Amino acid sequence: MKIFISADIEGITTTSNWDECDLDHATYRVHADQMTAEVLAVCEGAIAAGAKQVYIRDAHDTGCNIDPFKLPKEAILIRGWSGCPKSMAEGIDESFDAAMFVGYHAATTRPGNPLSHTISSANIIKIIMNGKVASEFMIYSWCAAYYGVPTVFLSGDKMLCEDDKDLHPSVLSVAVKDGYGATTYNRSTLETLPELRAKSELSLKQDLKNALIKLPDKFEVSILYKDHKYAEKMSFFPNVRKVDSNTIAFERDDYYEVLRTLQWLV
Question: What pTM did the predictor assign?
């Protein structure tokens, strides 16, 4: 069994503010170590379920947060950014049996995590995809589905787990924290790490073929920018239209083309 893991940091057990996610901040390493620990727990669960290879996409900031010296021999770590439109799911293809998402967070505008955002917290107010506020989990778990890979596991904040539970009915999730305004309610890592390990293992023991969703036939996407100048500039991208002063929109029939377009617009 070959497993793909995509890992972020804003949805791990311990993070509460942006400084803790910033490579240059004094507190960053503590949380990067916790990101590593949570990925390791999910790796261990996958291996216990029979995984022989586990590819891990380090998907936060520089893409170089996870400590490679703490990973098991079955792991292959994908670091840095090539510019591939798959982005946070770079490395996924038809050869994988299942995808798992660790440390993910609520979508921009959603109040369950002070670190809520979608791709770019600097420029984007929100991305709407087929009528739903899009989280990074939505965007990149659909990337997995595009390649015929079922998403079976998710960990992150409580709001993300609740908001996106309808996307993949077979997903097992672990909500490691909750949030309100600028406050987080963080569970003990002594509790979350064993739960991550146990549920990731359990998620892979289901019928994986039945866990695969069917993607929509058409994708309607709109992006609301913080700055009207971005909307004006990005409206010149091929087959993109300006909706209002701060919003652009586009439609695609092929999901890879959605990912390719987002790569340039956000």
Answer: 0.97
